[in-house]
Design goal:
This protein is an alpha+beta fold. The chain is built from three helices and eight strands, in the order αββαβαβββββ. Belongs to the RimP family.
């Protein structure tokens, strides 16, 4: 879609107006080609609860309302498909604030360099120390509970994870 970046902010603002009524917010907006069609994808998440499952019916309501409002944006003159979807159960944790909101959740974290010989792990994020900006994660190694402290800058990648 040509000039997508010129009206992406407008779409974000419209989407957040509608999503706010359902206690949701925009996680990410993408534009891509799929089967020769332009797709505007709006990934959403719950405003209050980290990684909460979203109702299909709510997503459908939001999609319909947003579709109607986007028809009034004059800059969008190309045909497109609108997709409003959950950001997903294993969505990326993109910054320190999102990691703070993930406290109490099961996550996957990878480090740039190993900490106590741990390069990556899945575990429950159990705490955050504001003064030192240090996070704590609890995980199991060979059946034994372990705890590891780390800071945001040493993280290579973090995301929510599914506990089996």
């Amino acid at each position: 879609m040509k000039n997508f970046t010129s009206f992406k902010t407008q779409i974000t603002d419209l989407a957040n107006q509608i999503l706010d009524q359902h206690h949701l917010k925009v996680y990410e907006i993408n534009n891509f080609q799929e089967f020769d069609s332009d797709v505007i994808q709006i990934l959403v998440e719950d405003k209050t609860e980290a990684n909460k499952a979203l109702s299909f019916d709510t997503l459908l309501l939001v999609n319909e309302a947003l579709s109607n409002m986007m028809d009034d944006i004059p800059e969008i003159d190309d045909q497109y498909l609108l997709e409003v979807a959950s950001a997903g159960i294993e969505k990326a944790i993109r910054n320190e604030d999102e990691l703070i909101k993930a406290i109490g959740q099961y996550i996957h974290v990878e480090f740039h360099d190993p900490i106590n010989k741990i390069q990556k792990t899945d575990g429950t994020l159990t705490g955050y120390e504001q003064e030192t900006k240090t996070f704590d994660i609890e995980f199991f190694v060979k059946g034994q509970k372990k705890k590891l402290a780390f800071t945001w800058p040493i993280i290579k990648q973090a995301r929510y994870a599914v506990k089996f």
